[in-house]
Amino acid sequence: MRVPWSASRECQSSSSEAVQLATSSKQHYTSLSSKCAHSVSLGTVRLREKGWVDQCMDERHCPVPGICCRLTILLLTFDCRVFMPNLVPPKIPDGERLDFDDIHRKRMEKDLNELQALIEAHFESRKKEEEELMSLKDRIEQRRAERAEQQRIRSEREKERQARMAEERARKEEEEARKKAEEEARKKKAFSNMLHFGGYMQKSEKKGGKKQTEREKKKKILSERRKPLNIDHLNEDKLRDKAKELWQTIRDLEAEKFDLQEKFKRQKYEINVLRNRVSDHQKV
């Protein structure tokens, strides 16, 4: 049992007094062992009065709870010094000595392994990034080639469309030129026929007397239709209404004129078609 340093010093300072107390209570301390022994004798009470007995640290084994064995510690210390021989502590065999070079070498190997692992991880990451970059470049090149092919196909289709449009335009121009030439030929023929018919009409007019010409008839009709426009006595609102009325009249006349022109064109086309059919029938 190891004795605290404070107890040893206390024992040394009061050894004579402790011997007297131990002698008066010798029959109560003969059975003390290495464990904590407890006393209930008069000596214990006297020690407690002097402040040498403190509260028990292990009340489970204490016969008198609350009273500890500082006296026991003093007696054991005194008895060990007086009656027990000096014990030599056993010699602890030396273990393996620390090899700092080996520790340094192991630490260097550990650092080297960690560095090697970091380098390998870096190169693996770099290799993966390079592979991704190459894959991205391949996709870009493939997409660029696809776009170039699409552009080529689109340009070829555009060229074909332009060629068809040019061919269609040339065909239409040729057809229009042919129709125009045929129209000119028919006009010349009709004009020659009209000349012959005009000579015949002049002869008939000479025979029938002098008649009004078409121009004179037109002037007469216009003079009958034309009415004088008296607007001097009209105010602003009535002038505005009059202008709207004239504008509506002009619009109606223009619409009628357009309808007559279209009708004339249609009749003229039908006449030309009939003449062509007659000429084709005569050729056959």
UniProtKB/TrEMBL annotation:
Listed InterPro entries: TNNT (IPR027707), Troponin (IPR001978), Troponin_sf (IPR038077)
Biased composition (Basic and acidic residues): 144-186, 203-229
Record keywords: Acetylation, Coiled coil, Muscle protein, Phosphoprotein
GO CC annotations on file: troponin complex
Origin: domain of life: Eukaryota
Any single GO BP term: sarcomere organization
One MF term in the entry's GO annotations: troponin C binding
Annotated region (Disordered), positions in chain: 144-229
Coiled-coil ranges per UniProt: 236-270
Job description of the protein: Troponin T is the tropomyosin-binding subunit of troponin, the thin filament regulatory complex which confers calcium-sensitivity to striated muscle actomyosin ATPase activity.
Family: Belongs to the troponin T family.
Protein name: Troponin T2, cardiac type
